[in-house]
Amino acid sequence: LSERLSGVFDKLTRQGALTAEDVETALREVRVALLEADVSLPVARAFVKSVSAKATGSAVTKSVTPGQQVVKIVHDELIRTLRGEGDPGALKIDNPPAAMLMVGLQGSGKTTTTAKLAKRLTERQGKRVLMASLDTNRPAAMEQLAILGTQIGVDTLPIIKGENAVQIAKRAKQQATFGGYDVYMLDTAGRLHIDEALMAEVQAVRDVAQPRETLLVVDGLTGQDAVNVATEFDGKVGITGVVLTRMDGDGRGGAALSMRAITGKPIRFVGLGEKMDALETFEAERVAGRILGMGDIVALVEKAQETFEAEQAERMMKRFQKGLFNMNDLKGQLDQMLKMGGMQGVMGMMPGMGKMAKQAEAAGFDDKALRRQIALINSMTKKERANPDLLQASRKKRIAAGAGLEVAEVNRLLKMHRQMADTMKKIGKMGKGGMLKQAMQ
Ligand code: GDP
Ligand code: MG
User: Fold this and answer.
1) Out of 3.20.20.80, 3.40.50.300, 3.30.1440.10, 3.40.50.880, which CATH number does the structure's domain 98-281 have?
2) Is the ipTM of this complex over 0.90?
3) How far is the CA of 188 from the centre of ligand 2 (A)?
4) Considering the entire predicted model, what is its pTM?
5) What's the gap in Å between 280 CA and the centre of ligand 2?
6) What stretches in the chain show pLDDT beneath 50?
């Protein structure tokens, strides 16, 4: 809700709009919560700042405190930030053989995740997958992948001693091509810290394999360091997505927010244990609740908002039954429509209004138009809103100017108001208003 719209809610709620002070107080707590969840400091700072601007001036729902309301706003924004575009589980693996490159620090869970993903692709998508370990530093690591392969029934590239990572990548590509595999997965070696040699090796492998997907595997429990890792890998190798492991642990998973904020790349999967089935596609809602550690508050505010909307609907319905429908009522309707998916969404739900919705659409009545109408009503005086009959030429001019629009728009609004007032009267008379109430829920 914009600052302007919140004016209406002031009358309807006990606490009115969020002040800059409310927001600041609540966000101080949110910032601590983010840092405790291991979100990196610069990311936490930037996030809180962006939310602060959005929260100030928004309406407080009856029966929650301003602090709780801010947490809800933060939660919603967190989900928005965490969620990438499209389906996180949809990997680009057409045009066989498609290469998938797995990168990350040592111990982050690359080998485990490679096998988990291979199992998923085999079982759920019927893909023929070949896995290859490029971890020449640790023979045990190559064995590890071979053992996992046997366990899950996925082929691994035979180990040849003395080859370097690039040679293994080339051989994997060949085998995948001639062996008729859909996908070949390259499990690279990690280091304890980012170093030049590691980056050069991964780059060389990338150039050979030209991977469709390069997934950065990050331990979900790492906090501040996650940012460096993401920046380095994305900058030097280029990644297409992130997998967060150890999300089954006690950590609150703040790394997820850091990853999204720093790389802008989608988080694809989360690892939830050592077992081969412990991999799920990323869900922003779940992780957001966990990062904030304030899930109860979010649920409370959602509940309160629902009740508030039901009360508001009840109040409006009573007015319609009495045949009352002024500009305030219209504005209430317009606000509600915007929230509920625009004109089409609302009208479509109201029996007998389908035709009107079609006319409205034909007349170019979209969400932008909705916002213009609301702006016009906002620039009316209290008296004018209560009694639209007052609106003569000079007042129309003033109102149009106030909203930065033409007088013709005011006329259109008045016409719509008259039409809606008539309809509302009819609906009110049709009795009990159960239908209208239903339509507004
Ligand atoms: P790599 O060095 O990056 O290849 O890491 P590994 O795949 O060898 O994993 C290191 C350790 O972390 C192993 O003991 C794995 O079983 C464990 N591990 C990997 N992913 C997860 C996870 O999602 N949850 C838990 N609890 N352990 C994991
Ligand atoms: Mg490994």
Assistant:
1) 3.40.50.300
2) yes
3) 7
4) 0.68
5) 20
6) 1-14, 348-352, 432-441
